[in-house]
Amino acid sequence: MIVVDDLHKHFGGFHAVDGASLRIEKGSITGLIGPNGAGKTTLFNVIAGVLSPTSGRVTMEGEDITGLPPHALFHKGLLRTFQIAHEFSSMTCRENLMMVPPGQSGETLWNTWFGRKRIADEERALRAKADEVLEFLTISHLADHKAGQVSGGQKKLLELGRTMMVDARIVFLDEVGAGVNRTLLNTIGDAIQRLNRERGYTFVVIEHDMDFIERLCDPVICMAEGKVLAEGTLAEIKANEEVIEAYLGTGLKNKDKLEAGA
Ligand SMILES: Nc1ncnc2c1ncn2[C@@H]1O[C@H](COP(=O)(O)OP(=O)(O)OP(=O)(O)O)[C@@H](O)[C@H]1O
Known about the structure:
Layout: E1 2-11, E2 14-24, E3 29-33, H1 40-47, E4 55-60, E5 63-64, H2 70-75, E6 78-80, H3 93-98, H4 109-114, H5 116-136, H6 152-164, E7 170-174, H7 182-199, E8 202-206, H8 210-216, E9 220-224, E10 227-232, H9 234-239, H10 241-249, H11 252-260
Parallel strand pairs: 3-8, 3-9, 6-7, 7-8
Antiparallel strand pairs: 1-2, 1-4, 4-5, 9-10
Helix pairs in contact: 6-7, 10-11
The structure holds adenosine-5'-triphosphate (ATP).
């Protein structure tokens, strides 16, 4: 579905992504792992249009999407989750979800004056959709809570929920598990699995928690020093000599991550 071909992203003389090539199959939950500084987030940001590549090509179902800005990719159903922006933290969880879909009639002055009924209808539909998303994520009880006041894990669920307000086809998740307790991490994992199975979402997941990767992801792609080192099941990746070397080369802390998945 998505093909990344010989992608480079340089910051001055530093090659954060250094000729990465990979495929993300439609319908998969693909894991992206690698030691700190491997270039995973930079790769994500280039694919998702947040950063423009130095060179290389990204295609989505054969269409060249290299360097397209996030809003153009958004319309194609390719989304990257973002932390809830500071300015939205005083809005409720439900309002945060209702903000997402573009092209609401209420955006134009004409409609504000002459299309009140249409706006009211849209708002009702949006509210119902937001409530459905909150229920799917098992956080209906947080609908009227301010987004800035819910826990870190609940915020991650809300970020995932934002992708459900539009017709997402492929979602990039960067470290959804960071700082999240086990119970909530399981809820996030369940939501990802259900979105994948029941709604056909494709996911690409950057994560250091190997239990999480093992439970959800097949295949797993391992990056190091801006390149793709190996691809396979997590068991295959863990047994790969080059992968072990790469984790060892960046210190014991990383090696422990590969083995224990903390
Ligand atoms: N805007 C930037 N300017 C300069 N260097 C950058 C920039 N963004 C990232 N880098 C560097 O590129 C390298 C890759 O960073 P990146 O965040 O992509 O790695 P990562 O694999 O996601 O790491 P981690 O697992 O620690 O999040 C790092 O050495 C980082 O310091």
